[in-house]
Specification:
Largest sheet of chain A: 6 strands, mixed
Largest sheet of chain B: 11 strands, mixed
Strand order of the largest sheet of chain A: 6-9-10-3-11-12
Order of helices and strands of chain B: HHHEEEHHHEEEEEEEEEEEEEEEEEHHH
Oligomer: heterodimer
Shape of chain A: globular
Number of strands of chain A: 12
Structural class of chain B: alpha/beta
Strand content of chain A: 25-35%
Mean pLDDT of chain B: 91
Number of helices of chain A: 10
Shape of chain B: globular
CATH topology of chain A: Rossmann fold
Low-confidence stretches of chain B: 1-13
Bound molecules: adenosine-5'-diphosphate, magnesium ion
Order of helices and strands of chain A: EEEHEEHEEHHHEHEHEHEEHH
Distance between the termini of chain A: 31 Å
Number of strands of chain B: 20
Distance between the termini of chain B: 33 Å
Number of domains of chain A: 1
Number of helices of chain B: 9
Largest interface: A-B, 32 and 25 residues
CATH architecture of chain A: 3-Layer(aba) Sandwich
Strand content of chain B: 35-45%
Number of domains of chain B: 2
Low-confidence stretches of chain A: none
Structural class of chain A: alpha/beta
CATH class of chain A: Alpha Beta
Mean pLDDT of chain A: 92
Chain lengths: 249, 408
Amino acid sequence: MLKINNLHANIDDTKILKGISLEIPDGEVHAIMGPNGSGKSTLSYVLAGREDYEVTEGSIALDGIDMLELSPEERAAAGIFLAFQYPVEIPGVQGTTFLKTALNAIRKQRGESELDALDFLKLMKQKTKNLGISDEMLKRAVNVGFSGGEKKRNEVLQMAMLDPKFCVLDETDSGLDIDALKIVADGVNAMRAENRSFLVITHYQRLLDYIKPDKVHVLAKGRIVKSGGPELAHELEEKGYAEFLQEAA
Amino acid sequence: MAQPTPIKKDHKLDDYNIATNCNSSFNAALPEWLKSARLNAYTDVQQSGLPTPKWERFKYTNVAQSIKNKNLSYAPADISTERDLNFVTDLTSNLNALPDWAKSFLSSAPAGQEKYQDMALWDINSALFENGLIVNILAHSDQDKPLNLTIKGRNGCHTQPRFLINAGENSHFTINETHEGEGDFWHNGVTQIHVGKNATLRHYRFQSNPDNAVHTQNTAVTIEEGGTYECFTMTMGSGLSRNQIHVSIIGSHAECILNGINLLKHEQIGDTTITIEHKAPNCTSHQNYRSVLNDQSNGIFQGKVHVHQIAQKTDGYQKSDTLLLSDTAQMNTKPELEIYADDVKCSHGTTTGKLEDTPLFYLRSRGIPEDEARALLIQSFLGDITERISDEHIREMAINQVISWLKA
Ligand SMILES: Nc1ncnc2c1ncn2[C@@H]1O[C@H](COP(=O)(O)OP(=O)(O)O)[C@@H](O)[C@H]1O
Ligand SMILES: [Mg+2]
């Protein structure tokens, strides 16, 4: 269970998140929708522990463990995974090296033994199969020269490899054509499990046709202004966000 | 190969009077032309003294001061080769029977002297050298095994090794140099290289002297038509190092590739000074250097591309990028283009910055601890240079040295 309570966060003394409370039980998928600039990415960064953001009030707990006390790498080991809205290019670091380093760093923190080369390759083969990620792509430097779709698929691959408990997907659908969207959605759906939960951030309802959420929340100006079932996404698609922007103002 | 000769304690190095005690018994046996070349060099140094920051190209690098504080005696350099090759011979025993090309190397003025009048380090080597190697790569030969050289500094000594290298027409060869040692010393090397028509010479250098050492190395390269000279220099050691390279491209369709990595910490000073003279059309010169500076270290990159009027269609590129790991580290760069031809493609650029937050956060969000994430990003920064190294084995060696530097 991920529990966010009255979360406030600033960047450079500008208040971005103004009291967010959310509970995402294990096994559930929640969606956050909201206009540009409402604080969706900020929320995802704060969950993952980015240090440029100052949490001024509130709490984040995963299975009762206080996340605000932990560094980004410790949160990753505790089970938080963030699929970035803009995946970062790391020139000169091969995809497989990166995955192996990350996986073994996490296993080490979790008190598990490091995977040897063979077991790692087996695992990788298994996870790449359905994501349409070629060996060639993994030999290249992380995200360098990747298309938008390749970058997003690569995020989902990392997610699958690192076996998280709670996944945040920040606009993983943006910039994807319908085929790429389906691949990504299938990848996420394949990971749905009783002991794993998801927070899917999106601007459009389209993604939610493929990843069916249990709950939908609307974020506007740093606050959750409405929560509901999957039908809320359709409502937003029709009416837009104007109503919420006025209410939140 | 040559055993290290016993250290000669009678030859003290006196700062501004550097050549006064050069070994007279060694000199006595030399041919007249060489004696007079050594005397000329000796006279020049007597007049100029050692380079100080008053000299334009030594603005950031005070060689005089770093040598003056040492009490060093002359000793022949400790040079060892991994295996014997019939075309690699000892310089000392051949000084009376040098091939013409080697003679002309030893009797010519230091590369760049005419223009800059600041070649005292070269002159000191000319006045004092007693050993070195002659490498005469036969035309059309293609050696798959490289020449692996180790040049060791000796505590309390200054050494002045001289290397004369001729890559014959159409030959292919690789030279790997390792510079190391212990204690307090000064290495002042001069290497002269001729790359013949359509020849390819790859030259790799790793310098990991202790912080007490001073490392000054002059390298002059002449490249003929269709020739390729590729050099990679890894500087990790020495309290003060100066890698000075002067390339003259004298035949068309020749190529010069200079790459380097400087990893500096503590109070190390690492200076790379390059001049490339394009004296023929349709040639390429690419310089790519990356530095990582920690603590109070100081990096210097001075690169000049000089395109003579005849050198139309020159492709000249020069880049120096630096990553500062501390607020007290400093990089000084001075890129220069001097162009007299009108149809050329030349550019230069320098960047200096810190590790970026976003990639660091990206890696950490994947569970990679901060230290390891930083190390990966530094490796990634340097990957741009290591991937330019043609020799796979050397590339791996460079990467491994970067990794161990990061861990130390
Ligand atoms: N580094 C920053 N410095 C200052 N303001 C920022 C910074 N990053 C984001 N913001 C502001 O915070 C608000 C929320 O941004 P963000 O979380 O990226 O929104 P969303 O993802 O919903 O589009 C915006 O008004 C944006 O301009
Ligand atoms: Mg966003």
